[in-house]
Specification:
The protein is mainly alpha-helical. It is built from 10 helices and no strands. Helix 7 packs antiparallel against helix 8 (105-112) and helix 7 (87-103) packs parallel to helix 9. The chain starts with a helix and ends with a helix. 33% of the residues are buried.
Length: 152
């Protein structure tokens, strides 16, 4: 599916949509969304967001956004923020978190500082601190000191 999506994403979409409803589509959708987002991220996102089956939509969005984040984490973050609030948005944001932290940890920290308190924000901070602890311990210490000052 990945190769097909790279050369003819609309043909791959037509194939998936032609399958009987009892055929599992998760792996196909994942491959399509991931590969298509590498070459046409906006088109892949639009296709994913228009899926009517909630499970297929979530799978398509997370694979497309995760792949998009490999090349443009800020663009993927903006699209993830546009997903309606709720579990689907949280999965979309979580899918790009690691790549965003690896490519631009400071911007990622600013991005997720706007998240509401909860599991996603905790996951984001944990991912950021793990990355910084390995790659830039001084930045991790600065971030932690800033957290302590903000808490008091």
């Amino acid at each position: 599916m990945s190769q097909w999506a790279g050369s003819d994403p609309k043909g791959a979409v037509a194939f998936i949509e032609s399958l009987p409803s009892d055929v599992p589509r998760g792996n196909l959708v994942n491959g399509l969304g991931s590969r298509w987002a590498q070459i046409e991220p906006d088109a892949a996102y639009e296709w994913a967001s228009q899926q009517t089956d909630p499970g297929v939509r979530t799978e398509a969005l997370t694979s497309a956004l995760s792949s998009w984040a490999n090349n443009d984490p800020s663009g993927a973050a903006a699209k993830a923020a546009a997903v309606p609030a709720g579990p689907e948005q949280e999965r979309a944001m979580a899918s790009i978190l690691g790549e965003f932290v690896r490519s631009d940890p400071q911007r990622a920290a600013t991005w997720f500082s706007e998240f509401t308190e909860g599991e996603l924000r905790n996951q984001a901070e944990s991912t950021l601190l793990s990355h910084w602890a390995r790659e830039d311990p001084a930045a991790a210490a600065t971030y932690l000191n800033g957290m302590k000052e903000g808490d008091s």
